[in-house]
Amino acid sequence: MTELSRPDRRTFLKIGAFAGGGLALAVYVPGRRPWDTTGATFQPNVFVRLGSDGMVTIWVGRVEMGQGVRTSLPMIVADELDADWSRVHVVQADAHPTKYGRQGTYGSTSVRNGAWLPLRRAGAAAREMLVGAAAARWGVDEAACRTDRGQVVHDASGRILSYGELADAAGRRPVPPDPRLKDPSEFRLIGSRLPLVDTPAHVAGRSVFGLDVRVPGMLHATVVHPPMFGGAVQHIDATRARDVPGVRHVLELSGGVAVVAEDTWTAFRGAEALDVTWKPGSFALGSADIAASLARLLEQPGEVARDDGDAETALRQAARRIEAIYRAPYLAHATMEPMNCTAHVRPDRCEIWAPTQNPQGTQEAAARLTGLPIERVTVHVTHLGCGWGRRSATDFVRDAVETSMKVGTPVQVAWTREEDMRHDYYRPTVCHHLEGAIGADGGLAALRVRIACTPISGGGGGGGSGVDRNSVEGVANLPYRVPNLFVDYCRPHIAVPTGYWRSVGASQNTFIVESFVDELAHAAGRDPLEFRLALLDHRPRLARVLELAAERSGWGTPLAGRARGVALVDNKGGLVAEVAEVSLEGGRLRVHRVTCVADCGRIIHPGIAESQMTGSVVCGLTAALYGEITLEGGRVVQGNFDDYPLLRFDEMPEVAVHLVRSDEEPGGVGEPAVPPIAPAVTNAIFALSGRRVRSLPIRPGNLSGA
Amino acid sequence: MPPLTLRVNGHRRQVEVAPDTPLLWVLRDHLGLTGAKYGCGIAECGACTVHLDGRAELSCMVTASRAAGHEITTIEGLSADLSHPVQQAWIAEDVPECGYCQSGQIMTAAALLARSPSPSEREIDEAMAAVLCRCGTYQRIRRAVHRAAREAGP
User: Fold this and answer.
1) Is residue A103 part of a domain?
2) Is B4-78 a CATH 3.10.20.30 domain?
3) B63 touching A, CB under 8 A?
4) How far is CA A69 from CA A63, A285, A355, in A?
5) Structural contact between residues A685 and A703, judged by C-beta atoms closer than 8 angstroms
6) Is B132 on the interface with A (CB under 8 A)?
7) Distance of CA B150 to the CA centre of its chain
8) Which among A203, A211, A652 is the nearest to B96, CB-wise?
9) All residues at 6 or more sequence positions from A188 whose CB lies less than 8 Å from its CB, including other chains
């Protein structure tokens, strides 16, 4: 392969003849570490092969969890390549330390952050090489040739050559240093609603999720972990577990006890029959203790996350000043597919099948655990039954690798739902103290937000110092113009593991700041939407999103027995405003309608984007209505969907999504519609009942009779 | 354990399992039919829904011995070629996101339409509320159920 380096564009392109014939491209996409805004690195993300049979094979390094990357990323390459979409074949890439760049799939980063540009450049370069090959063969000027869905056409002579016929010759041509990208008006695939590549297999029940992996000779296992955080195994009495017919092994692992059996059900029954004595760690707090410790923490100054103007003085001198304490609970991810992993560890190599958001982290973890060099560890990525950030951890991989190492056969470790719910990396519980001042002009003069939140980065559990950027997300970067804004961060040291939960810190912080901004609007005697709009004169795109949300929702028009609430966010490259329409009848809260207006830049696939917005509303609404993980004595109380309910079909509001047409760079679509729904609903509750919800989940019982 | 004979997707299958083994695990771990999914094991999520004599049943709650003697249909047996009107409607509306719950959704919708070819919104609500979708595809599911009813109609 020849290598073309264009550091000025932060793009590398490898392109050339493929060993097996045809044309191969390796595209280096500028990626970022998921939670690091500073460093940009050059990494390949998609591999493409154009075979002499005309088939375009695209390896996707990112993982598919319903957000559509297996459709949208290939669309970008195929559009610039001018490929025949019906001859595009998508392959899920195995993990590789460098070959596919950063494969970790979180933070809505697969398309945004410029990721799409190198994909386009790769497709465009290959297209020009194909045109060059055709022009050379015909002895005509390249400018006289054009491409059309997988073929090169010379209009003057009416001659046509397919990409397949040209692939070998194209692979031997020099790489064009600066291929012409399509004008957006020329896009055929980008912006269209192509059928998703995975739908037929999903609908046939043929898609392979982690739990569907079947390897010859495989045993099934489940793992029981210490029920209290920081706990450990003290003694295992496996007598009864071993008596369950079909149980093969009971093993102590570093993280718990594995029961290995002939099928999953037998492993579950064996685990129930286990008698393990646990040695508790030092952590034994309950939810009330944690809430009290967060409140105490706010009595001391924290680390400053933002300090504009002089909030202290402005608050003291304000004509009107309000303050409030807000709280949000721990949340589990509760992906529909519980944590699982299949591993086959042999003396000289290790093979893994995992529903993971972190293929490379999985590979590294397995290499570490087995002591094998990384190139001896193969990680196949399956479909993921939801991700939401949970599958960026590798604790379930560790269980499978350790179990297979001990038994020597391929083993699938499947956690029960209860183990999944009680051994998560939770969205942290938070307590914020907010103070705001209304100026003489009726606008927002000052805002002080003090945040107590276990750090989200690094798995929580205490330790570290300074501002945890994820914990202040949505507040430290508040989009409103506030002349005096102070945000500080207090770091609790609580042993409950915390992690990335769809939309991360913004999910709880937006509930809190957008509720408090609503309080301030009411304190100023102004319409909450108009109050916000007045603070966005420096953010025209966001202001336009809010105006559209007002128009589309009928903001200001009368509603019998219902009320509307509004909230907005700037998150993960998406600008989203949502208006919720709610009623409270006999103490029963009902969300009838949600208007969701989003400006996420140029949209690759509007159908996917609409699905992500609608699904994000369901995600945020589920959390607002039901989501709460509580602790007693250092243990999680909830275990399954009976005590950690999810929104059901008959509770689904009508969600109307409006995507703003935009020529701006693509932003994220998977997360930004999550944060605004909770405050849109609670602000509507206030408009309807005069009751301000300052703690989630919403408890409609406390709202009736208002 | 004496072998148990089940009739699955039109074929007689013999399995050697404890008679109280839930049908879900017989299908998944003994018969290689992984379309029905494990989500909760306590009849809350509906991801394991299959048909017993055409009726939607939660396979995590039906024991192998109880399933014997009934015609069991899984997503793999709903049609050989995705031609079932519900599958066609699901494709036309591009319903799935992650896809994990979708066989449960489709089997539930297919059983609903088999007993009520033109279901009311309320009937759709009642039937489909049995299956959780964490991705939140409910709105497209509703459209697909209506489409399937329309296109399978007389």
Assistant:
1) yes
2) yes
3) no
4) 7, 41, 15
5) yes
6) yes
7) 21
8) A203
9) A79, A82, A149
